[in-house]
Amino acid sequence: MVELFFSYSHQDEELRNELEKHLSLLRRQGVIDLWSDHRIGPGKEISGEIDQHLESADIILLLVSPDFLNSDYCYDIEMGRAMERHESGETRVIPVILRPCDWQSAPFRKFKALPTDGKPVTKHQTLDDAFLDITRAIREVIQQLGPASPVMEHDDSLLTGDTSKPSLSQRVRSSSLRVRQEFTDRQRHKFLDEAFEFIAQYFEGSLAELEARNADVETSFKRVDANRFEASVYMGGQERSRCGIWLGDGTSISKGILFSHSGLGAGNSYNESLSIEDDSFSLFLKPMGMARIGKGGDKLLTAEGAAEFYWGLFIDRLQ
């Protein structure tokens, strides 16, 4: 069995939990043993336990984010020792880019990062897409490492025939200890506002890049106010695509983030909408599915995924 060690900042605990969920099949199949500091029992010396598993791990995942790079313990101690063991051929270090940060300037930049092309997990359309990509890559690495001895073979109590019940301080425990939560109206409203702002910035940047790359293309981005904007694309001076995107007023027929191919207009008709959903752990945006019947309507999207979804509706008319 291959031992996998998570080096991460506690600010990224929710994302680590999601990754563990995707790796659970490998664990159930007896392929890997997942270790993080959540498995340290009461009364155990924290630094000693971490050092022990950092030294024994066959694969070390660096869960990279601004908080990881900012943590002296993660960066100087865990990453430093992981790099030393990798260089000596004792372990395999894999950077996993959770959130956008300047990781290309870090010592581990020479390693192939996950997800594919080092695209941050939070920049994928859905978290599941990103973690599936990571899980498949880790499975390939494990196959390359070849068969490994089961972790239990290193348990001295089993070798000596000691089958007594472990004390509380010795008991192993799950690393998945998160609990369901109920989100407040304030949390939902803030999430919606931040997602809309991200979509607006995404469209503004994408329109500028589209115009820069195509000589016959002109674009227009009009930010009407904090809750509304319009986007247009012209080819040869003729309008080829247009949309209006705005925050709904919260009524039953006009809530969430709305999209119309006709622009903003009076704001009383739209082609698609994104509403807030949650999986009891995180907040997401879910398309109603009107614009693309049977395509994406069941997906829970991050802000990045929502921006890509609406951009796809907008750019389809040019492709």
From TrEMBL:
<protein>
    <recommendedName>
        <fullName>TIR domain-containing protein</fullName>
    </recommendedName>
</protein>
<dbReference type="Pfam" id="PF13676">
    <property type="entry name" value="TIR_2"/>
</dbReference>
<dbReference type="InterPro" id="IPR000157">
    <property type="entry name" value="TIR_dom"/>
</dbReference>
<dbReference type="GO" id="GO:0007165">
    <property type="term" value="P:signal transduction"/>
</dbReference>
<feature type="domain" description="TIR">
    <location>
        <begin position="1"/>
        <end position="142"/>
    </location>
</feature>
<dbReference type="InterPro" id="IPR035897">
    <property type="entry name" value="Toll_tir_struct_dom_sf"/>
</dbReference>
<feature type="region of interest" description="Disordered">
    <location>
        <begin position="152"/>
        <end position="171"/>
    </location>
</feature>
